[in-house]
Specification:
By secondary structure, the chain is α+β, with helices and mostly antiparallel strands. The chain has 9 helices and 25 strands. It has a 7-stranded mixed beta sheet, with helices on one face. The chain has a 7-stranded mixed beta sheet with strand order 13-14-16-18-20-19-21. The longest helix is centred in the middle third of the chain and has 18 residues, at 285-302. It starts with a helix and ends with a strand.
C-alpha cells in the first residue's frame, strides 16, 4: 500500500492542527507526519556514527527476538536501549550505531554459519531487523548481537521446512493479551521451556492505557515506574516507550529468545476497539490516522517482522502467508485495519439488519480474496488461520433473547459466511482457526450453520486465553452455564490465564490448554487444564 498525494496533504493539514492540541506536541505531530508520508525524519542525512566504545551501559536491555520463519531464511531482531525508559533509549539523538550479528549451529558459537553487520538507525529508534538468507530448511540456529564491548543474550530460532517437504510433526503455541498492569508474565517463562517450533501472538501485545500512578508512587508489580507511563499512548514516543516497558520484562525476553514469533495485532496496539480509520471515541478520522501511523510504526520497529510489513504511514500490510512443508499453511489475518465499524455502537447487542448487512466486512475485500485464493492453491494437510477475534457464534444466553458480540465475527456474519463458503468451495478439509482477544480459553467446532447444531462441522477453533489481561480469572467464569448451554459447538471453556499448544501431525492435531494458577503474584506453576484432539479428515474436537 502507498499513501496517496491527497492523503499526504490531508495528513499535513491534520498534523498542523494537532500540533496546537494539548495532547500531542508539535514535535510528536511532526514525527508522526514524517513517518505517515514515509519521509525521513529531520537530520537523517547528518546522522553520525556512534563510537560503540563509548557505550558504558548494556544496550541489550530488551533482549533479542526472531520471527516469520522461512525455509531458507531467519529474521533476527534487537533494539539498542541502554536506558529503555527514556525517549531514545539513552542513546545520543541522531546517532547511528553499527551492530554485529552472528548465527551458529550451537549456542557456544563454535560452529558458525553466518555473520555480518547492520545499522541501528535513530529514525527506527535504534531497532535492527536482519534477514539472514541461504540457510538450511527445518534447522535450529542460535544467534546474538554485539556492540562494542557488549554482547546480547543468545537467541534460538528455527527455519521452516523446505517447500514440498513431507514433514510429519509441528508444534506451535498461541498467546495473546498481555496487559502489563494486570500481572506477571509468568506464562511466558513456562512457554520458554516448552519444546515449540513457533509461537503465534494473536494480538494485544501491549495496552494503550496509562500504567502506574504519579511518579514516585508504588507501581504495578511492586515496581515504581517513571511518570512517563502514566498516560495513554498517543504519540510515536508514547508507543515506543510502552514497547520498551513490556519488552524489558524478563519472562517475555526469555520466550522471545527461546522461539521464533509470528505476530499479528488486535486493537490495543493502537486503541481499544478501533475499526479501520474509525477510533473508539469521538475523534475525527483524519486525526486518528496520525495516531494510527505512530502506533503502526512503533509496532513494526519493535516486532520481528520482515521488510514487506514495514508500514507506509497509517497503512501496513500485516496479513501474510507462511508454509511449513506439506504439513501446514498459515494464513495470518488482520481483522482491525480494514473492518467496517462495529454495528449498534459495539458491545453485546441483539443482532439485526445493521449487523447482518451483506456489505459489512471484517477483513476487507482484498484480504478476503487473498485468503480464499490461498486455500484454493494450498496443498497442506492443515490450513491454519491465526487471527484475532472469535469466529464461531457465541450466544450470550440459551433463549431467543440472546445477544452477540459486535466486535467479533458475530458482528459481521455475512463476512464470516463468505469466508466459510470459500473454505468449502476450496475443498479445505482440515481447517483450524487460532484466536485470542477474549481473555478466556475456548475449544469450538466451526459449523456450516451455527443455528443448526446438526449442520456440517467445517473445522475447529482454538481460542487461547490471555497472558495476564483480566488478572487471575477463574476456571468457570460467571457466564459459564449460559454460554455452554447456548452454544452446543462450544466444547471447552476456562477463564484462567496461560496459553495453548497445538501439535500437528499427519493423522490428527492435539491442543493442550495450559494455565497458571495466578498472575497477580509471580512464579505460579503451569498445568494442563484440558486436552482435545481433532482428526484429519474428521473435523471437530474430542477430549484427548
Amino acid at each position: 500500500m502507498t499513501v496517496s498525494q491527497d492523503r499526504s496533504e490531508e495528513l499535513r493539514a491534520v498534523a498542523r492542527h494537532l500540533g496546537r492540541r494539548r495532547f500531542l506536541t508539535v514535535t510528536g505531530a511532526a514525527a508522526a507526519l514524517a513517518f505517515a508520508v514515509n519521509l525521513p525524519a529531520a537530520g537523517t542525512a547528518a546522522a553520525a556514527e556512534l563510537d560503540a566504545r563509548r557505550l558504558s551501559e548494556d544496550p541489550f536491555t530488551l533482549g533479542v527476538a526472531s520471527g516469520d520463519p522461512l525455509p531458507g531464511s531467519a529474521l533476527l531482531w534487537t533494539r539498542l536501549a541502554p536506558r529503555p525508559y527514556e525517549i531514545g533509549g539513552g542513546l545520543p539523538t541522531g546517532s547511528r550505531v553499527t551492530v554485529q550479528w552472528e548465527l551458529a549451529h550451537d549456542e557456544l558459537f563454535r560452529r558458525g554459519v553466518r555473520r555480518g553487520s547492520a545499522i541501528a538507525h535513530p529514525e527506527f529508534d535504534h531497532t535492527v531487523h536482519v534477514e539472514v538468507p541461504d540457510l538450511g530448511p527445518g534447522r535450529v540456529y542460535f544467534y546474538r548481537f554485539r556492540v562494542g564491548a557488549w554482547t546480547s543474550p543468545v537467541g534460538r530460532t528455527r527455519t521452516a521446512p523446505a517447500p514440498g517437504a513431507h514433514n510429519t510433526r509441528l508444534k506451535l503455541a498461541a498467546v495473546s493479551c498481555q496487559a502489563y498492569h494486570d500481572g506477571y508474565f509468568t506464562a511466558y517463562r513456562h512457554l520458554a521451556d516448552e519444546d515449540i517450533d513457533v509461537v503465534f501472538h494473536l494480538g494485544d501485545y501491549l495496552y494503550e492505557y496509562a500504567v502506574n500512578g504519579a511518579g514516585g508512587a508504588r507501581g504495578y508489580r511492586d515496581r515504581v515506574l517513571p511518570a512517563v507511563f502514566n498516560r495513554e499512548t498517543l504519540t510515536l514516543d508514547d508507543y515506543r516507550l510502552r514497547y520498551a516497558l513490556y519488552k524489558s520484562d524478563p519472562d517475555l525476553i526469555a520466550a522471545h529468545a527461546a522461539h521464533p514469533f509470528v505476530v499479528t495485532w488486535d486493537d490495543h496496539e493502537t486503541e481499544n476497539n478501533y475499526a479501520g480509520d474509525t477510533p473508539e471515541n469521538d475523534v475525527p478520522p483524519e486525526e486518528f490516522l496520525i495516531r494510527r501511523a505512530a502506533a503502526y510504526r512503533a509496532y513494526w520497529e519493535n516486532q520481528p517482522l520482515r521488510r514487506p510489513q514495514r508500514p507506509q504511514g497509517p497503512d501496513m500490510r500485516l496479513y501474510r502467508r507462511l508454509r511449513f512443508g506439506r504439513l501446514a499453511q498459515f494464513d495470518i489475518l488482520d481483522t482491525r485495519q480494514y473492518r467496517s465499524d462495529q454495528a449498534y455502537g459495539d458491545g453485546w447487542q441483539v443482532p439485526g439488519p445493521e449487523s447482518e448487512d451483506p456489505a459489512r466486512t471484517l477483513t476487507g475485500a482484498a484480504q478476503e480474496r487473498w485468503l480464499i485464493d490461498g486455500w484454493r492453491d494450498s496443498r497442506a494437510r492443515w490450513n491454519v488461520v491465526p487471527q484475532q477475534v472469535v469466529l464461531a457464534e457465541r450466544r450470550s444466553v440459551p433463549t431467543d433473547a440472546y445477544t452477540l458480540s459486535m466486535d467479533s465475527w458475530d458482528g459481521y456474519p455475512a463476512s464470516r459466511q463468505r469466508v466459510l463458503a470459500g473454505a468449502q468451495a476450496a475443498g479445505v478439509e482440515n481447517l483450524m482457526v487460532l484466536t485470542g482477544d477474549v481473555h478466556v480459553a475456548y475449544g469450538l467446532d466451526i459449523k456450516a450453520d451455527f443455528r443448526d447444531p446438526g449442520s456440517r462441522t467445517l473445522g475447529t477453533e482454538i481460542v487461547t486465553t490471555s497472558i495476564t489481561s483480566g488478572k487471575n480469572g477463574s476456571e468457570r467464569p460467571s457466564n459459564y452455564a449460559n454460554l455452554t448451554r447456548a452454544n452446543p459447538h462450544l466444547k471447552f471453556y476456562d477463564g484462567r490465564r496461560g496459553y495453548v499448544t497445538v501439535a500437528l501431525g499427519q493423522d490428527s492435531a492435539r491442543a493442550d490448554f495450559r494455565t497458571v494458577s495466578a498472575v497477580t503474584t509471580p512464579g505460579a506453576p503451569v498445568t494442563t487444564a484440558a486436552s482435545f484432539v481433532t482428526e484429519a479428515g474428521n473435523p471437530g474436537l474430542t477430549p484427548a
